[in-house]
Amino acid sequence: MNKQDDYQTSWNNDEVHVSVPFSAAGVGTTVIITSKFTGKMILLDVGDGALRDLLSASANYGFVNEIDLIAISHGHFDHVGGLHSLLGFMRMMKRTNPLNIVIPAQCKEALGIIQGFREYYRETLPFKIWYHESSHGSGFDTDFFKVKSYGVEHYSLENASIDENEVLEPALGFRVQVGETTVAYTGDTRMCPGAELVVSDADFALIEATYQDSPGTERQVHLSRAEAQKLGTLAKEFTLIHMIPKSD
Ligand SMILES: [Zn+2]
Fold first, then answer.
1. 246 within domain boundaries
2. Does 91 fall in a domain?
3. Which one of 34, 39, 50, 152 is least enclosed by Cβ atoms within 10 Å?
4. What does the alpha-carbon distance between residue 90 and residue 80 come to, in Å, rounded to a whole number?
5. Rounded CA gap, 91 and 88, in Å?
């Protein structure tokens, strides 16, 4: 794999700190947006290692109660793989604040993790978990964050060989408003109108750029670097994430 710096990035303004402690295609992606005024956090996707990354970024375990909201872009393992661990840690640390989780409608992986967790620990869970199945145009607001969901086109790789027709994952991109600041996150997507809506005029956009080069005639699952850069010009500032790790 590449050196660690290739997988992490951050961005700041007066209101918001955006941290991507780790993002690599097929491994894990987590985005942490923190309000500088309230200290509250929203997580966009919780790939494997999300809990470890949160722990290494925080001086104490108090962050457990500061995570206001989690938004999951789609059900692939590299975007939801850390959810069970994070919920388990919240339970162990006796989180009390209710937790809201925005998920794409009919995202079976996210539903399975959340419903399973609530079921296993029904008697001993010290906080409520509420999930919200969202689709294109859905909005979800808390006291600290406003999240708008946009449907994006993420071709379902695992079904590629069984159907001549295209099978798309339930997949969302998000725009998160914190005060006057808008942070955009495409999730996994190919070039599509939804991805343009996510990114347009955002103060800062995190854009997936899985492919070094476009795979050409293959079905489009992700953005190429060139496509992602073109999309990025719609935002005021942007950074590319979700690259494929190099391998010998
Ligand atoms: Zn994916």
1. no
2. yes
3. 39
4. 16
5. 5
Structure tokens at 6: 């290739």
Residues bordering ligand 1, an ion, CB closer than 5 Å = 76, 188
Compute the distance between CA of residue 26 and CA of residue 7 in angstroms, rounded to an integer: 12
CB 201 within 8 A of CB 181: no
Counted domains in the chain:
1
**What is the 140 CA–ligand 1 centroid distance (Å)?**
23
pLDDT per residue as tens digits for the range 23-81: 999 999 999 999 999 999 999 999 999 999 999 988 788 888 999 999 999 999 999 99
Range of the domain at 234: 4-241
3-state class of 114 per DSSP?
A: helix
Q: Is residue 248 part of a domain?
A: no
CATH number at residue 99: 3.60.15.10
pTM: 0.93
